[in-house]
Write a structure and sequence with these properties.
Elements (H helix, E strand, L loop, with lengths): L16 E2 L1 H8 L15 E11 L2 E9 L13 E11 L10 E5 L8 E4 L4 H12 L2 E3 L2 E5 L11 E3 L7 E5 L3 E5 L2 E2 L5 H11 L10 E5 L5 E8 L5 E2 H11 L4 H21 L8 H18 L7 H9 L22 E4 L2 E4 L10 H4 L6 H15 L7 H19 L7 H22 L5 H12 L3
Parallel strand pairs: 1-5
Antiparallel strand pairs: 2-3, 3-4, 4-6, 4-12, 5-6, 7-8, 8-13, 9-10, 10-11, 11-14, 13-14, 15-16, 16-17
Bound molecules: adenosine-5'-diphosphate and the ligand O=P(O)(O)O[C@H]1O[C@H](CO)[C@@H](O[C@H]2O[C@H](CO)[C@@H](O)[C@H](O)[C@H]2O)[C@H](O)[C@H]1O.
């Protein structure tokens, strides 16, 4: 699934010329990680620009969707994105697919800019920057001094379906460069760091990271060990389905791994208040209303889905709220040796950071993984509901064996969280992969009508 981009140059597109902001305004919406694909970019402004080393600029831009940035440059109606721009007079043709265009005016006039993450030389120099703590303008480079990173590791850019961009260095480390930047600490740095301090071995711990102080404080990227012989759960599940293999032993182990991570999260981030189902139901209903507004196909199912949320107010409150993964699915778990590891603690990328960093029911993660078994079972025809049902049973049994409570005994909670997740998926697929929309829509139909 993951291939190197460096080795597959495409012929250079006819070169675009324009102002830097004009070029970026055209280029950004074409990127896989661009979050605002459903709305036109009405304005684009550079929030910060820092020279990292000669020929490479670190840039934060605000892509607006009809709103005006608030005073002080903090984005309002729109998002902030992180770019590493290569700047050369004549970039090598090997960088063809990374080209953004030739800048017509301003201080970069006459130069061609491109996405520097595609440039092995820039990627190497960037690792050098990360290896040594220090500052560059508003940028802060920090590392765990107890885990020194060797010099000279060869980079390759991952070509995965991602919300961010990742570089693998010498199959030893992986650097995730966050693309959509929000003020505050990114949970993908905060959580793995805290779990490592708890001695939880199921999450690769950060070894170096970088952040900015302008135009607001935010985490920009994290380097962590690369699990080189790992396969992700999605690939393994699809392989098992294609071969007609049973996946219940893996699902059971995955349930145990999820519970281990939840237990470590509960110790690392103690939470005072218990979860409150009434508020949760109100939040889910609000998200459903917003999603049905964007995706009209949801509308006939709204009454049935609302009933699933309303039932929360009368059902058992379930386990206490705590920090969770927030976007758990088969693509977020890696199997290396005989163990499952969990990655990507960013949460659902479209939710505000404050919400992603607050406490939620662990049932939300469980529901995310159960939805993922359903996604996998629907990848081939005839689709395999029995396969998904067996994985579901095994996963919950594995979870119960470690956590001491059984998700299968929380039917009302599970139904509400699975419904909420399916609503999120409908919106996600409508924005990013319209061809996949029938997958969560099938679940919506089932959850709204039958409730199982
Ligand atoms: N520590 C790691 N070891 C091996 N592969 C990893 C590691 N972290 C991420 N990956 C690979 O990179 C892909 C993207 O990582 P992820 O954190 O999910 O990024 P995003 O948030 O952009 O979706 C994963 O699907 C996985 O294949
Ligand atoms: O980019 P992230 O991995 O953080 O997560 C986003 O993208 C996922 C798809 O790449 C999306 O997951 C959905 O599709 C998966 C199959 O590709 C499936 O296993 C998941 O169950 C389903 O939710 C995820 O929702 C989104 O946040």
């Amino acid at each position: 699934m993951t291939k190197t981009a460096f080795l597959r140059p495409r012929s250079a597109p006819a070169e675009h010329t324009g102002s830097l902001t004009g070029l970026l305004r055209e280029w950004l919406p074409r990127q896989r990680w661009f979050a605002g694909k459903d709305r036109p970019v009405t304005d684009l402004g550079v929030l910060s620009m820092t020279e990292l080393f000669p020929g490479c600029l670190h840039v934060l831009v605000h892509a607006g969707h009809g709103g005006v940035p608030a005073p002080g440059g903090t984005p309002s109606a729109g998002d902030c994105y992180q770019l590493l721009l290569g700047v050369r007079e004549n970039p090598s043709p090997r960088l063809g697919r990374a080209l953004i265009g030739r800048v017509r005016d301003g201080r970069l006039a006459g130069m061609t800019v491109y996405d520097a993450l595609h440039d092995p030389r820039a990627a190497q120099l960037f690792l050098e920057r990360l290896r040594r703590p220090g500052t560059s303008g508003p940028l802060r480079f920090e590392c765990d001094a107890s885990q020194p990173v060797p010099a000279g590791l060869v980079p390759r850019l991952l070509d995965a379906e991602q919300s961010n961009s990742s570089l693998v260095y010498g199959d030893e480390y992986i650097l995730k460069v966050f693309r959509r930047i929000q003020p505050g600490v990114n949970p993908d740095l905060e959580v793995p760091g805290a779990l490592a301090r708890q001695g939880c071995h199921r999450v690769p711990a950060p070894v170096a990271w970088f952040r900015t102080t302008h135009p607001f404080k935010a985490t920009l990227g994290v380097l962590q060990p690369y699990l080189r012989d790992a396969s992700d759960g999605w690939t393994l599940a699809l392989d098992a389905l294609a071969a007609g293999d049973d996946f219940t032993a893996q699902a059971h182990a995955l349930g145990r791994a999820t519970a281990d991570v939840h237990l470590a999260l509960a110790s690392a981030f103690p939470v005072g208040a218990p979860g409150e189902n009434g508020r949760t139901a109100a939040g889910m209903t609000e998200r459903l209303t917003a999603a049905a507004h964007c995706v009209p196909a949801l509308q006939p199912f709204v009454p049935g889905l609302r009933a699933a949320f309303a039932a929360l107010t009368t059902c058992d409150p379930g386990p206490p709220a705590q920090r969770i993964h927030g976007d758990l699915h088969l693509g977020q778990v890696l199997r290396a040796g005989r163990e499952w590891f969990v990655i990507d603690f960013e949460g659902e990328p479209s939710r505000p950071l404050s919400e992603r960093r607050s406490a939620h029911s662990p049932v939300r993660d469980i529901a995310g993984m159960l939805r993922s078994f359903d996604y996998a079972a629907r990848q081939r025809r005839p689709w395999r509901p029995e396969w998904a049902r067996r994985c579901r049973e095994a996963y919950c049994a594995g979870y119960a064996a470690r956590a001491g409570w059984d998700p299968r005994k929380k039917h009302g909670l599970l139904r509400a969280y699975e419904t909420d997740r399916a609503v999120y998926e409908v919106l996600y697929e409508a924005r990013h992969r319209p061809d996949w929309l029938p997958v969560p829509m099938a679940a919506i139909e089932r959850l709204a009508v039958r409730g199982d």
